[in-house]
Amino acid sequence: MSWLWSTADMVAAMGGRPVGSLPAGITGISIDSRSLAPGEAFFAIKGDRVDGHDFATLAVANGAALLVVSEAKLPALGRLTVPMIVVEDVLAALVKLARAARARSRAQIVAVTGSVGKTTTKEMLRDVLAPSGKVHAAVASFNNHWGVPLTLARMPEDAVFGVFEIGMNHPDEIRPLVKMVRPHVAVITTIGAAHLGHFKNLEEIASAKAEIFEGLEPGGVALLNRDNKQYAFLEQRALEVGVQNVLTFGQHAKADFRLADFEGRADGSTIWAVLGADTMEVHIGAPGRHIAENAMAALAVVALFGADMEAAKQALAALRAVKGRGERHRLAIGEGQMTLIDESYNANPASMRAAIALLAVTEPEGAGRRIAVLGDMLEMGAFSAKVHEELAGPLLSAGIEHVWLAGTEMAALRDALPDTVAVEYRPTTGELQAHVLANIQPGDVLMVKSSLGIGFGKIVAALIDKHPALPDRERHL
Known about the structure:
- By secondary structure, the chain is of the alpha/beta class.
- The chain folds into three domains: 5-89, MurE/MurF, N-terminal domain (Udp-n-acetylmuramoylalanyl-d-glutamate--2,6- Diaminopimelate Ligase, Chain: A, domain 1, 3-Layer(aba) Sandwich), CATH 3.40.1390; 105-317, UDP-N-acetylmuramoyl-L-alanine:D-glutamate ligase (3-Layer(aba) Sandwich), CATH 3.40.1190; 327-474, Protein-Tyrosine Phosphatase, Chain A.
- The chain is built from 16 helices and 22 strands.
- It has helices at 7-14, 56-61, 90-104, 118-129, 147-153, 174-181, 202-209, 231-240, 289-305, 309-317, 349-360, 384-389, 392-397, 411-416, 429-439, 457-466; strands at residues 5-6, 17-19, 25-26, 28-30, 40-43, 66-70, 84-87, 108-113, 135-137, 161-165, 185-188, 221-225, 245-250, 257-265, 268-275, 278-284, 327-333, 336-343, 370-375, 402-406, 422-426, 445-449.
- It has a nine-stranded mixed sheet with strand order 9-10-8-11-12-13-14-15-16, sandwiched between helices. The protein has a six-stranded mixed sheet with strand order 17-18-22-19-20-21, with helices on both faces.
């Protein structure tokens, strides 16, 4: 049996107290009793909303090999006979195990942050590095104070590459996480107005993102977007904390990994990438210039790690957009079909512009329309009205003539759009969902985007539920 961890190593790393007859090892780590697999250790983390100790019985029923529990909660678990490792604080114990995982690893590690494109770039890196060796990367967007240590503690000892996503919405969040991960390459995809309500300006956001440099391994590389307006600030921050290797990607003439040309299509794109002395034609299976920019960062990491570049190019050609982040659906409607672009996972000004640009290059069929279905961007604070009304410019430039809106903040965009645009506004997601279902037509292209908290995923789900997906042979992708 190949263990993720021997229980002896777990006890030593966490400073825990074994209770009962521990198994020799565990096959994995879970903090969710519902998705736990037999043989895994269940860490009963106390979160903001739920306490994992309340689900210990369910974890045992689902096959947990052992529980990691708090000393203070032990009396309440007295009836359970499953082996346990008892610690003072379960999350702190997970962090200790994460540090032990990093200490034993010989993997090349990359950490990714940025206002837009973190998860997409992380998934790209998983794909492009996989042909060159075993890759360990976070599932979903596990990029916070529990997601990062969980991902790190799950890293197998024999991983060749580790890919970590690190997020934040306040200062001082990235610093402790990146010092745990200790990457060899730190990527900042871009700086934009995400979480602007928690900061005074973009420079404060850039400063918080720059914390990622503080965990770089000696001799490590800071990989920055040369096209971003905050580039000079980020470069200076990197140098101030002792980073000796600052490299860049992007369209800028001085970028070390340069996007020389871009040819976009509705189903993907072709780029010409200049990497050192070589210019390569690279096909990307997911559409959008923003995807191409993320691909340049991924190709740069492949080059820096000495991984197989040809295999990486093939992986990018096979790339597909994922749920909530540009995934496309061809749905039957009446005697025809419609295209649904699902961008419902999250939204900020930069990603809204990218999604609008994607809608602009997607052709409707027949008398179909391009329709932007947009909801509030959250965490914009005092800047909210301004950033929402400023979306009028990209929509008009893209020639989008139908805009359907919901949410308190989107009223600002409604008021900023001219009469030449057919605007439908509803206060709530539910009301807009009813309008969408009643008014879509054959040939339409709908792009649905909002912050996750607005719940536009329900609109996507309702459309897919009502209109059957076309078989692959009928899809015109």
